[in-house]
């Protein structure tokens, strides 16, 4: 066999190997994005000061194949046909949730919300009597969760749209990756 033929076969084999590697990488990227992790951009101020407008984060899509959302999780869900929301899970199926006197109660028990401390202090300084307006008890039906934004004065959440079907949950927010100076876990 001549050197030219051998060289040509080597180049073809190398091209074929690169094509296979690229194909496998694309398939893996598709599977990872579809079933495991996806990027998400925060739109709006409903999760301030935990998450900020335009921050980019990674959503774990696989976690809820293994377990149900639980209180405290920050989740992304399909709120409308063309729009996803990001909110904090407050209560789950079987729970009763209410707010009285700026205090959250789940099944009649007071729940501490340390992630709201800064907001509550700012609300007091601005003369707002409450950071979270009172609402009557809401029973969470099977297959649903109750969600609220951390910026309670500026959040369109279960107080307005009702309990959210677990089937609409995309996944749990794990960490922010942009801007680089703000890389952190979201929980």
Automatic annotation (TrEMBL):
What is a single cellular component term in the Gene Ontology annotation?
plasma membrane
Q: Which GO molecular function annotation, any one, does this entry have?
A: serine-type endopeptidase activity
Q: Which domain of life is it from?
A: Bacteria
Active-site residues per Swiss-Prot or TrEMBL entry: 46, 87
What membrane topology is given? Answer: Single-pass type II membrane protein
Record domain Peptidase S26: where? 15-178
Per the record, the major location class is membrane
GO terms in the biological process aspect are:
signal peptide processing
* InterPro entries xrefs: LexA/Signal_pep-like_sf, Pept_S26A_signal_pept_1, Pept_S26A_signal_pept_1_CS, Peptidase_S26
Keyword tags:
Cell membrane, Hydrolase, Membrane, Protease, Transmembrane, Transmembrane helix
Q: Where in the cell is it found?
A: Cell membrane; Membrane
- Write down the EC number: 3.4.21.89
Q: Which Pfam families match?
A: Peptidase_S26 (PF10502)
Name of the protein described by the UniProt record: Signal peptidase I
């Amino acid at each position: 066999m001549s050197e030219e033929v051998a060289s040509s076969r080597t180049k073809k084999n190398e091209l074929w190997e690169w094509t296979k590697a690229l194909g496998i990488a694309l398939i893996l990227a598709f599977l990872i994005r579809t079933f495991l992790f996806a990027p998400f951009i925060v739109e709006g101020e409903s999760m301030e000061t935990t998450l900020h407008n335009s921050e980019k984060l990674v959503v774990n899509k696989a976690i809820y194949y293994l377990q149900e959302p639980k209180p405290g999780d920050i989740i992304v869900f399909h709120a409308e046909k063309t729009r996803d929301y990001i909110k904090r899970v407050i209560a789950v199926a079987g729970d009763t949730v209410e707010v009285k006197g700026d205090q959250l109660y789940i099944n009649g028990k007071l729940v501490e919300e340390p992630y709201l401390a800064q907001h509550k202090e700012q609300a007091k300084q601005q003369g707002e009597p409450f950071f979270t307006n009172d609402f009557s008890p809401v029973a969470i039906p099977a297959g649903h969760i109750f969600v609220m934004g951390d910026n309670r004065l500026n959040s369109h959440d279960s107080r307005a749209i009702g309990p959210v079907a677990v089937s609409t949950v995309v996944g749990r927010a794990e960490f922010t990756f942009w801007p680089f100076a703000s890389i952190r876990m979201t929980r």
